[in-house]
Amino acid sequence: MSYLGIDIGTSAVKALLIDAEGRSVASASASLEVSRPHADWSEQAPDGWIKATGAALDELRVKSAAELGRLRGIGLSGQMHGAVLLDPSDRPLRPAILWNDGRSAAECAALTEREPRFHSLGGNLVMPGFTAPKLEWVRRHEPAIFAKTTKVLLPKDYVRLWLTGEYVCDMSDAAGTLWMDVAERDWSEPLLAATGLSRAHMPRLVEGTEVSGTLRSGLAARWGIDGHPTVAGGGGDNAASACGIGAVRPGEAFLSLGTSGVLFVSNARYSPNTKSAVHAFCHALPKTWHQMGVILSAAASLEWLAGITGRTAAELVAECEGDREPPAPDAPLFLPYLSGERTPHNDALARGAFVGLAHVSDRRALTRAVLEGVAFAFADCLEVLSAAGTEVGRVTAVGGGSRSHVWLETISSALGITMDVPEEGELGGAYGAARLGLIAAERADPFAICTPPKLVEIIEPNRPLADALAPRLDRWRKLYRLQKEIRI
User: Fold this and answer.
1) Are 204 and 167 in contact (CB under 8 A)?
2) Does the pLDDT at position 427 exceed 80?
3) pTM of this prediction?
4) On the CB side of 389, how many CA atoms lie within 13 Å of its CA?
5) Is the pLDDT of residue 190 over 90?
């Protein structure tokens, strides 16, 4: 038997086939394009996800026809917060407004004033990245389209509609809309009403491990699949990734060093801290929640430096890998707010900066400052998670940046936590989605399936480095306040 995970990302759709033991069988992907017709806008054509998903599955059939033919379960993962507006015939009324679209700042302020329960019930600040303010923007600026809208779906759930014919969303993805009572794991009628919507506009809710429908006969025939595989609820990208990493029990955590940065912790209860922009969502597993601290430019900061120095990010890090001396007290500091920041500032206008440059500040000094600056941003995330009552002493490190020992040691020392480094392999949203597909199809125990990966290294805080970083973190935190005071 085999199980399929489909991850609807921003830059690509990835499909991953696993066997009953959770081993990767084959994978395929198809690229996507993002449209930015105006400043702060970010959109995609929903039918592009359908085309890319079809192409990825067509490729999988070529690679592993026999294994795909024995498919029993499908799980979905996807970019969160995107707004797909459908007419009565299920046709998209406009391009989907994506998670990184920033046009709705004014609508965020209006919704916060109109309905304070977005914080208490929705568990999060009203930010442009979330779905509700996007619909409020459409209501204000495209009223004819808003009036024709009969269903609002998230990106992966538009693909689900194509796969199964069902309007369904899982709890973890729905929690990122701001229309959900996150503690009760149900749509909130007051929050929907604040944006002129009702429960009728929303898909049916299921847990990520539950069956949401079955694959359409025509698509099963297209890919040579026997029978009608079940399609699990799935999860938002980070919740699905947590299922792949095994961060599903209370207190289990991962730190993702990708383009953006995420500090994710699984919780046994709903634990919001909206004051400091902590994200509090449902997990993809029943009766489980999670918190996240999110920084917008993690590895993106290193890629930016690579671009202006004419090196690759890997080359920059390699120059620092053998450097075990703690930073000098007067070494440069870096604010990684190249595209604003979420946790803890919720400040779309925050910007990056180098401070303390001197004639001796060479490329390696700038790289070390970037690695430190991202580590300090994670330290801010950890601090506000602690304020919400969550203690984190150990995380699994994932993402492209996790291949750097010096970067992980810097983060470990700045945060005072242990970093577990897993074997390289399939640990992302597609793998977690495939696990959810297996659980739904076989009615398996989620905790027996969502186990941690094998480790290749354990990184503990370096005491001399931690002692050197502590006063630098104090100085670094003052820089944001100073930058905000002198902002143009």
Assistant:
1) yes
2) no
3) 0.89
4) 11
5) yes
Nearest of 431, 54, 96 to residue 241 by alpha carbon: 431
On the 0-12 / 13-18 / 19+ scale of CB atoms within 10 A, 35 is middle
What is the torsional sign of CA 364, 366, 370, 376? positive
Q: How far apart are CA 102 and CA 93, in angstroms?
A: 20
Q: Look at residue 389 in the predicted model and tell me its pLDDT.
A: 82
Average pLDDT, the chain: 94
CB 415 within 8 A of CB 209: no
Average pLDDT over residues 77-92: 97
> Is residue 487 packed enough to be buried (19+ CB in 10 Å), middle (13-18) or exposed (0-12)?
exposed
Average pLDDT for 188-215: 98
Would you say 316 and 306 are in contact if contact means Cβ atoms under 8 Å apart? yes
Left, alpha or beta for 130 (phi > 0: left; psi -120 to 50: alpha)? Answer: beta
- Kindly write down the DSSP assignment for every residue of 31-95, as one continuous string: E---B--STT--EE-HHHHHHHHHHHHHHHHHH-HHHHHTEEEEEEEE-SS-BEEE-TTS-BSSP
What is the tens place of the pLDDT at every residue in 268-308? 889 887 777 788 999 999 999 999 999 989 999 999 999 99
Cα(first)–Cα(last) distance of the chain, in Å? 60
Annotated catalytic residue within 237, 362, 380, 420 = 237
Token readout for 28 is 């395929």
Which residue bears the tokens 């806008």? 41
- 323 a catalytic residue: no
pLDDT score recorded for residue 483: 86
Nearest residue to 156 via CA among 169, 140, 139: 169
Hey, CA dihedral for 401, 402, 403, 407, is it positive or negative?
Answer: positive
- Tell me how crowded residue 444 is: count the other CB atoms within 10 A of its CB: 16
Instruction: Note whether 139 and 147 are within 8 A (CB).
Output: no
Residue 307 phi/psi, 5-degree rounding, is -65, -40
Rounded to whole angstroms, how far apart are CA atoms 2 and 73?
7
DSSP state of 326: P
The whole-angstrom separation of Cα 212 and Cα 54 is 20
CA distance 123 to 5: 28
The dihedral sign for the CA sequence 172, 173, 176, 182: negative
pLDDT band at residue 390 under the 50/70/90 scheme: confident
- The per-residue pLDDT for range 91-100, each reduced to its tens digit, is 999 999 998 8
Q: Is the pLDDT of residue 193 over 80?
A: yes
